Amino acid sequence: RYSNVCARCPEQRPVETQFALNCMGEFDLITRYFKRPSQRAVLGVGDDCALLAPTPGMHMAVSSDMLVEGRHFLSTVDPARLGHKALAVNLSDLAACGAEPTAFTLALSLPRIDEVWLEGFSEGLLQLANEHHCELVGGDTTQGPLNICITAFGEVPPGDALLRQNAQVGDDIYVSGTVGDARLALEVFRGLQTLDAKSFESVRTRMEMPTPRIALGLALRAIANAAIDVSDGLLGDLGHILQRSQVGAQIDTTWLQQSNTFGEDAQAAGISPTLAQLPWNKRLEFALAGGDDYELCFTAPVHQREMVHAAAWESNTPVTRIGRITEAQGLVVMDPEGQPITRRFASFDHFA
Ligand code: ADP
Ligand code: MG
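Above: the input record for the complex with adenosine-5'-diphosphate. Below: its predicted structure, written as tokens.
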């Protein structure tokens, strides 16, 4: 900690805080932007610890994700969208586990106190939190490079959690929503692809404001055998299920030929109309290995097909069947003519 004077106050008030840029200190900041009345928590922001009252008999699901500027988001992103995404990626992990969100903590490293940024960030963050009745109960705030780390807590009945290790030979494989849009948006940001303004806006929104599939995860509890959320690319993340379950998979690509519809609500599923405009090879690459989709990839027994459709319907989430689990290890991708595709798809790896 160091002392300084506030650059904004006429009286040049001394500032005793790790943020020396103005007289809004760390505690004012927390109170203004992150402290809200407690709902379910026994004790929220403001003391040494938060106190949560878990539902008796439930298992607690816990997951952390860190977002680093330049690595996980562009420095120019709208702060409200960033607040949304920071929580969304954590809720997506709870969804993939079939857990219902209850609370989260926020560890924030900020280069400076920027009230416009904090206003937007906290608004986007708390809006999504409210939608899921998941309350911010504590955290830490420090000065440093922009870095956002959230730990989310959820609940799931014992035995109901969707795990990576339970895929069974013969299971159908499904993916929710649409995949590949976030990757397409990133390519446009990088100048490697061009899109008309409306299409760009739609894929950019998918990249910046992913939808955590909480309702689908809950609806799949007693139906799916295994699940994972797609953060690094569909094939790569499916690979984690295969490895943990000691099985293989055959993926079909007919669902990439056009933007499909599912059920009677006719929502686009599998790939978006925007992705469907791309040449086949790009479509394949972005949908199968794109990353940042935050959709659920899951497996379920063939006899549960009706129940999967019902879960999709009930949760208002499109779902596409994309392949099946095989006894033969390895991941085979078939082209629409039924021939194996031999090219490799690189998944996103932070240390690659
Ligand atoms: P301590 O010194 O005990 O670590 P802090 O001074 O870091 O406590 O934080 C004070 C209170 O504010 C604590 O209840 C903490 O959980 C909460 N808090 C700190 N930063 C944040 C944040 N970014 N979001 C929500 N709560 C926060
Ligand atoms: Mg602290």
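Notes for the reader.
The chain is about 30% helix and 25% strand.
Confidence is low (pLDDT under 50) at residues 261-268.
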